Amino acid sequence: MALPVQDERTMPAVVLRDLDRRPLEQTLAEFVALIEQYGHVVVLYSDAVPEAVTRRLHTLRSLLESDRIALFRPDLPPLGIAVLARQLRQLASCDLSPGVLASAGRLLTHYIHSGAVLGSVAKLDRVPVGLKAHAKSWMPGTQFGIVAHPEPQLVRIAPEAVLNGPEFSTWMLVAKGQLQSDWIGGLAKAWGAHGLRETPLPAESSVWWGTGRMIEFTSYLADLSVLYQLVTSVRQTSCHWCGIDVIGDRCVFCSATPPVYDPPPPRALEQRTPA
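^ thats the sequence. predicted structure below, dont judge the formating
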């Protein structure tokens, strides 16, 4: 899901629709056009998309034999991925190289808090669920508050129920499915959010969370200057394989990691014959 732009500087998104259903030649031509237009392409996608989509993405990258395509599947719920994609679109207007911009995805993931209010956890397999919670999910009217990222949390919603949130100022984005709950407003206040914004529910959310009876939420940094400062404060290095500038320990374009050199053996002591 491509979120609407947050300011006039935010770059537009390209939504790759029906990759697993369209002819290979058509999707290949689409990728070629994107590379020719932008130079580098960063693809963010959820692990809730069909496996055929993942295979098609890797097939396209292999056919093009291109190190200018980065495939990034963050460990985030769908709404969190949509937020991360918009943050990268915001940063794309800044003076960041393609490798640093693509690497920023892994860094910014740590500052995203994503969760949901669920009417049932019977099919939830992304967060540890105890037997007691499973049993209570069959009781009519029971709702659960869950944080899936950065640290799993689960509570049965009650007036005193709380979830640990970010220790910095954020906005909260809410996407409502087939569930009604006023608890989100109290959670946003407890987390010190500047305010709530609403958006449609991503297509993959019901698959990711195991139910359509849900309200998904994500707390995130919205200020471009803060995002830019976070990214530029991290040391940059050049990938030893493709030469592109990156942050972190793995190149997002060629997937190379820094080489590991074995330490040289200790210098043998020379045998000296006493005079």
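The chain has eight helices and ten strands.
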